[in-house]
Design goal:
The protein is an alpha+beta fold. The protein has helices at residues 10-21, 38-41, 45-63, 68-84, 130-139, 195-210; strands spanning 2-3, 29-35, 96-102, 107-113, 120-124, 142-147, 151-157, 161-164, 170-171, 183-184, 190-191, 232-234. The chain has a 5-stranded mixed sheet, with helices on both faces. Strands 6, 7, 8, 9 and 12 form a 5-stranded antiparallel sheet that branches. Helix 3 (45-63) runs antiparallel to helix 4 (68-84). The chain is elongated, with a radius of gyration of 28 Å.
């Protein structure tokens, strides 16, 4: 049975969405969304909730006009979903989880999520992927610049991870404090130059004259793909 990666990164999640959206109506699919907030993990509360939801789903399954083989297939999928949560080591370090199962379709997908609106379990002819799609569209991709007096680093932030754009690293044009040009005043004393304020003012005037932007802003940061070897932190 095929399975998708269980890492909460943007690319595996997009791949999961594309595959699940493409599933046509047919044999039933078990769709499960589960909150994994710290309070939900206390004393294994999520395990009790899953057992209750699976029990209710089995009760509803018996009332449906399905043949015996179809009911046994769905019941097997529900049991596989329930047993997945028996081992806490399987749980991702995220605050939510989406799980889709259908033995008849050779489908098993586990998608860690940064947030789940409401825990629920459903059996339907197609997987319930609306929340996956909405999460991706609502959060989108945000560009972030981390700057200090010596350099700047750029990152892209999605609902699933943070990736540093190594090919956009910006180094400072000078190190240390600014020192204006020295000049000799009356009496042979050395006096300071125009100072950093005047230098910045000249830079602004030059940029305005040449029609060039003085600063690189977040709004103008290009949304490029991570460079080879770009470092990524999972949320």
């Amino acid at each position: 049975m095929s399975a998708l990666p269980t890492v909460a990164a943007a690319d595996p999640v997009r791949a999961a969405i594309e595959r699940l959206v493409g599933v046509e109506s047919g044999p039933d699919v078990v769709s499960c969304y589960l909150k994994l907030e710290p309070r939900d993990k206390t004393r294994g509360k999520y395990v009790i909730k899953m057992k209750n939801r699976v029990r209710d789903a089995l009760t509803q399954l018996e009332r449906r006009p399905l043949d015996r083989a179809a009911k046994e297939s769905v019941a097997s999928d529900l049991e596989r979903v329930r047993s997945y949560f028996d081992d806490p080591a399987r749980l991702p370090p995220t605050r939510g989880l989406a799980l889709f199962a259908s033995g008849a379709r050779d489908l098993w997908a586990v998608v860690p999520l940064p947030h789940v609106h409401r825990s629920r379990l459903a059996v339907a002819p197609t997987p319930l992927v609306l929340e996956l799609v909405a999460l991706e569209e609502e959060f989108g991709t945000i560009a972030v610049a981390l700057c200090d007096r010596t350099s700047a680093r750029f990152f892209t932030v999605t609902a699933y991870d943070v990736t540093e754009l190594l090919d956009l690293a910006a180094e400072a044009s000078r190190g240390g404090r600014f020192h204006g040009e020295r000049r000799v005043a009356r009496g042979g004393l050395v006096a300071g130059g125009g100072g950093e304020h005047h230098r910045k003012r000249r830079d602004q005037d030059t940029c305005a004259h040449e029609g060039l932007p003085l600063h690189l802003t977040i709004a103008n940061l290009p949304m490029c793909s991570p460079a080879p070897g770009a470092s990524t932190w999972k949320r």
